[in-house]
Amino acid sequence: MFRYTHALVCRVPVAFRTRAEIDLEEARRQHEALCRLLRELGVDVVELPPDELHPECVFVEDTAVICNGVALITRPGAPHRQGEVDTVRAVLKKELGLPIVEISDEAAKLDGGDVLFTGREFFVGLSEWTNEAGARALAASFPEFSVTPIKVSPGVRLEGGQQGHALQVSAARSLHSTPPHPPPASLPLIILSPLEPPQLTPNLRQVSEPRHLKALVSMAAPDVLCVSKGAASQEVLRRIEREASFSYQTLTVPEDSAANVLSVNGTLIHRSAAEAPETCKHLEGKPELQRRQLSVSELAKVGAGLSSCCLLVRRTRAARTF
Description:
Blueprint: E1 6-10, H1 24-40, E2 44-48, E3 64-67, E4 70-73, H2 84-95, E5 100-101, E6 115-117, E7 122-126, H3 132-141, E8 147-151, E9 155-159, E10 171-172, E11 189-190, E12 205-209, E13 217-221, E14 224-228, H4 231-243, E15 249-253, E16 262-264, E17 267-271, H5 277-284, E18 291-294, E19 311-313
Parallel strand pairs: 1-2, 4-5, 7-8, 14-15, 17-18
Antiparallel strand pairs: 1-19, 3-4, 6-7, 9-12, 10-11, 13-14, 16-17
InterPro entries: DDAH-like
Family: Belongs to the DDAH family.
Coiled coil: 17-44
């Protein structure tokens, strides 16, 4: 489980700096470091050239969901990103030889960053970029796995003062637990009460921050969920524990930003000590984990940073590089 032969990545375009106050050269160095590490772990990295028409093309994870050697091409929730899937589709089909599944429902929205595959089942974040129709499309594409949608509410950052404050994350029940049953037409959501909002002072203002499910929970190892101590991450974990068809262990890290990790060929890839010092200290006490750390501060200003920058594939036939 979580053994990979190939990774598809896309280099950072100049246009990326239009999405935030980003040090472009540092973002590119961080992306190159990720590619080098993946190669060191035995992964054949296929690099796409930067697409200046699509500033967020570096977050290639959002364009497809790959499971059991099949690639589901997503329908990104942000309209300006929908053109990113064309190149990814072609490379997955022609260069990596994967069967392609398309989403026929034009109302569906699905970002790969909202899809968590544990190796046994799927959890899908219902966020600004993924809706119920997208979750149903995923369930229809991989009927051998149960699919549980989880509502991901935007976080709230306070500007002009203290660090951000996260609001509620709520959840919905499983689409279906056994493959023969078709997914229902609609998903009844169980909305949880919001957390206590912060007290604002005249120099503070709340800024909504949409986020993907995998910014709150990711896979640290087979059957091991990585979450942070933050309220939003913990609420998602509680919902997963209630709705999951299988049992999982949990790796809880101190910093919210460290909840997004990668598990690649037996190695846990996590945020560097410079970016998540308390998490690194915590992980030092777990010698059973083979770990590597990366800095993704510039990439993470727009996306989750680690998982969002690659599509991981397991296949046997060698891929061409270009």
